[in-house]
Structures are given as structure tokens and as C-alpha cells.
Design brief:
- It is built from 16 helices and 16 strands.
- It is an alpha+beta fold.
- An eight-stranded antiparallel beta sheet has the order 12-7-11-10-14-15-13-16. Strands 1, 2, 3, 4, 5 and 6 form a six-stranded antiparallel beta sheet that branches.
- 40% of the residues are buried.
- 30% of the residues lie in helices and 22% in strands.
- The termini are far apart.
- It is globular.
Length: 478
């Protein structure tokens, strides 16, 4: 029986959860009404996973303090009602006791569900479950007009439901999302398969996506890492309830280092489902090495509670505020460095082409790979189910993630490396995520990210332009 149909303590707890949520929405609406009409609207939140410049703004932010909890989990229906500012860390903690998980759990604990829907998210289930917004059944959104509207795939506001993903808060903010959940088993058995040729890796990835298996074993999770052109890996995960020893990468051992091996046969490993979902968070993939925390002498004394992405982000924010990295480079006689923190998608058959170019032109390694397909393959290839990030139904893409900085060259245009990446991605019929620096001109941006559809949505749901438009928020320097 659904939780919604039970009487007694469960139904009382359910009503209490929704009552607390309503109070949070009321505070949000009051804070929105209090913001001067000529001020940019922003969220008053302590964490962020954005790497691009934000508009300077002294106006108070939206009060989202009451929108950070799981409202209800219905284990029978395999759904959850979740407030928009709830982190995936809290969402997973609420669903795993039922043996359930969100269909896609982005890699970092402080990513919020609402953020992953309006700003996209991806993980190793995306080759079978698509992107986080595809598991949303219904949303309540605060629009730029200051109204709470309920949206779903069909009905009066279905255009906003389809246009909300990749809008980055420029059409509104989610206050409640009802999402699908899927059953998970207690453990994940891993195989790390090595490749010496990127085209062989590309072909194997395509085969695994098509068959959902490899060498006679089921594949439930799929991502990969490229270290060099002749050393790359696919990481294949299989759910299992078989008891046995498991690895722990929250201590001295570093997860991405465990992937590497010289053998022709896959290297095997096992994690609990909880530790698998957060395997990348402890060391922010591999980016914790910039802070020295992968050095055993440092790691031994670095408190465990600070081995997580949210703390590393605070260090990055300090660097951005005070230009610490560039100051240190200048003391060594080196030029400033250009931040190259991006996730892009290209069709799977162009993955090796992009990687060949990237490894030759951009001095960053390792590189993360994550294949994805839209869940709904029933639409025609020309139909854009999600117009602000128009991936083709029935086509497999690969997300390529790279997160570091490169030396600048005197006389080069600002963002030279990022601009080159944008040109290459467009040439290969791909897209890039908008959480970091972008340099497109307005016409190209409109062609890639919604165009006239976005203009109509903006007019309908933010007629007074209380919120920044997408180009201003994602591209224009502040």
C-alpha cells in the first residue's frame, strides 16, 4: 500500500512533511516579494557547484531555508516528493533504507535535485536512465512572475516542464519535484577494463550501451577514465546482493588510482551501493590532488569530514576571490592560468575524434567519460523533447569531463582554450553544459540552447524579466 493510503503515524508524518514544506514555500514567496524589482534575483544558499562568474548583487537572496528536505518517500509506488533545494546526499539517505535510489545520482553530494534538473546532471546510470529531469513526474515551480505553478509532461504548463531543464533558474525555481525511484541491491561489483586504443574503447562503450552487458555479465553502471591516448578504462558496475568484502575509498586509498592496472584481464573490485554512489566525492574525482590531499603524508592528517567536494569547493572559491593561484604562479615567473572546467557531450561515434584533439591541444588529464541516451526513444529524431538541451532521441552521446587549468599565452584572447573547445564540440555536433565559463556569441548560443522556444517561455513565465535571461547568466561576463 502507498504511504499516501496509510492511516496512523505514517500518514501523520506525511502530513507534517507537507505542512513544513508549505511553510517553506510561504517564506520563499515572501522573500521574492521583498526583493526590489530592479535587483537581480538569486538564491540565498551556502553551497554551489557552478564555476562561472555570477552577477554582483547586494540584494537579499531568496529564502530557500524551508526547501531542503525530502517531503515523502512512497516505497510502493517507487516515488519521492522532494523539495527543490534538497541535496542528493540527503535524498539518497532517505531512499536507500527502502532499497531505492534516484534513477540518476550526480557524483557530488551537495548537488541539489532542483539544481540537477534546471542545470542538468549525469552519472553512470545515464546510458540507461538518461538525465535527472527525465525521472521527474511533476514539479512545482516559482516563476519569474512570482507565482507557484504545477507542471507535468502534459497539461496547461507542459511547455514549462519541457523547457525548465538547462534553464539555470532563468525561468524560475523548483520548490517541489516528484521523481521516480528504482530498486538497488546492497553492493556493486566492479570491473575496470583497460584499453590501449581510444577507438577500441569507443566501440566497446557503444556495444555495452546497446547490449547492457559485457563478456557475459550484466552492466548496470558505466563510466570511464582516460589517462593518456594508450591508457584508458571503462568501469563496469553490476548490482549484487552477494555478501563479501568491500573496498573503502574514504580513507587512505584514492578511488581513481584503484582503476589503473597493466593486466589484459579486468581488475575487479566491490563497493557498497552507498559508497559506489559517492565514490567520486571524497576526492572530487581526482581534483583533490591540487590541495595535496592525495599525498599520504598530508592525507593521514587531513580530517575525514573535509575530504569531500563541498570543502574543496570552498577552497576554490577562496582562490577565485583572492587570485591565490595566479599570485603563486606570478611569484614563480609563470603566466596566469585559464580555468578549463567543463563537461561536454558529443555523439558516441565522435568520442575518439574529440579525445584525440583534446589530448593533443589541451594539457589536462585525467578525463572522465560517461555515456548517455534519452530515456524516451519513441520520439522522432527531429523532435526535441527538451528544447533547451536538444539531444536526439535514439542517439547515444558521451559526456566528456575535464576540470583543471592551463597556462595562458600573452596576446591570446580571453578564454582561448575554452573557445577552442566550444568550436570543436560544435564541429562534432555536440553540446556543452553551462555551469562554467562560456564564450558563444548570442546567435550561436540561441541556435544551441533553445532559441525561439526559450524566448516564448521567458515571455510567458517571466514577463517583467525579473530573472536574468539564459545568455546573460551563462555567457556574459559580470
Amino acid at each position: 500500500m502507498s504511504l499516501l493510503g496509510k492511516a496512523g503515524p505514517a500518514s501523520a508524518a506525511l502530513e507534517s512533511g507537507f505542512a513544513a514544506h508549505r511553510d517553506g514555500v510561504d517564506r520563499l514567496l515572501a522573500s521574492y516579494a521583498a526583493i526590489p524589482r530592479d535587483a537581480n534575483v538569486r538564491l540565498a544558499k551556502k553551497t554551489s557547484n557552478l564555476f562561472r562568474a555570477r552577477a554582483r548583487n547586494n540584494a537579499p537572496g531568496l529564502d530557500v531555508s524551508g526547501l531542503n528536505r525530502v517531503i515523502a518517500v512512497d516505497p510502493a509506488a517507487r516515488t519521492a516528493d522532494v523539495a527543490g533545494m534538497t541535496t542528493y546526499e540527503d535524498l539518497v539517505a532517505a531512499t536507500l533504507p527502502y532499497g531505492l535510489s534516484p534513477l540518476v545520482v550526480p557524483q557530488l553530494k551537495t548537488i541539489t535535485l532542483g539544481g540537477a534538473v534546471t542545470g542538468l546532471g549525469i552519472e553512470s546510470t545515464s546510458f540507461r536512465n538518461g538525465l535527472p529531469h527525465e525521472s521527474v513526474l511533476e514539479m512545482d515551480l516559482l516563476t519569474g512572475a512570482g507565482e507557484i505553478v504545477t507542471t507535468s509532461p502534459t497539461g496547461e504548463n507542459s511547455d514549462l516542464f519541457r523547457g525548465f531543464p538547462n534553464s539555470y533558474g532563468t525561468l524560475g525555481y523548483s520548490t517541489r519535484l516528484k521523481i521516480e525511484l528504482e530498486p538497488v541491491l546492497p553492493y556493486v561489483a566492479l570491473r575496470h577494463v583497460r584499453f590501449h586504443d581510444l577507438r577500441e574503447l569507443e566501440a566497446a562503450m557503444a556495444q555495452i550501451v546497446a547490449e547492457r552487458g559485457h563478456d557475459g555479465e550484466q552492466v548496470d553502471y558505466l563510466d570511464g577514465v582516460v589517462f593518456t591516448a594508450d591508457e584508458s578504462y571503462l568501469i563496469l558496475g553490476r548490482q549484487t546482493d552477494e555478501p563479501g568484502p568491500v573496498s573503502d575509498y574514504t580513507g587512505m586509498d584514492v578511488y581513481y588510482k584503484s582503476i589503473r592496472h597493466d593486466g589484459a584481464q579486468p581488475k575487479r573490485d566491490r563497493l557498497t551501493i552507498h559508497d559506489y554512489l559517492w565514490r567520486w566525492d571524497t576526492d572530487w574525482f581526482w581534483c583533490s590532488r591540487a590541495f595535496g590531499t592525495q599525498n599520504p603524508a598530508v592525507r593521514r592528517f587531513w580530517p575525514k569530514q573535509y575530504r569531500r567536494s563541498s570543502f574543496y569547493w570552498k577552497l576554490i572559491a577562496l582562490d577565485q576571490k583572492y587570485d591565490i593561484g595566479d599570485r603563486l604562479e606570478a611569484r614563480r615567473g609563470n603566466p596566469p592560468r585559464e580555468r578549463v572546467v567543463q563537461d561536454i557531450e558529443v555523439p558516441i561515434e565522435r568520442t575518439a575524434d574529440f579525445l584525440d584533439w583534446f589530448l593533443a591541444e589541451i594539457p589536462i588529464e585525467p578525463i572522465w567519460l560517461c555515456p548517455l541516451r534519452l530515456r524516451d526513444d519513441s520520439a522522432s529524431p527531429d523532435e526535441r523533447l527538451w528544447p533547451l538541451y536538444p539531444l536526439e532521441p535514439g542517439r547515444t552521446y558521451v559526456n566528456v569531463g575535464f576540470w583543471s587549468a592551463v597556462p595562458t599565452t600573452p596576446g591570446q584572447v580571453e578564454g582561448a582554450a575554452n573557445r577552442a573547445i566550444e568550436r570543436k564540440v560544435t564541429e562534432l555536433d555536440g553540446h556543452k553544459s553551462l555551469y562554467s565559463d562560456s564564450y558563444y556569441d548570442r546567435d550561436e548560443f540561441a541556435q544551441l540552447y533553445g532559441g525561439d522556444v526559450y524566448t516564448r517561455l521567458k515571455k510567458n513565465y517571466d514577463p517583467d524579466h525579473r530573472l536574468l535571461d539564459l545568455y546573460s547568466k551563462a555567457v556574459q561576463r559580470k
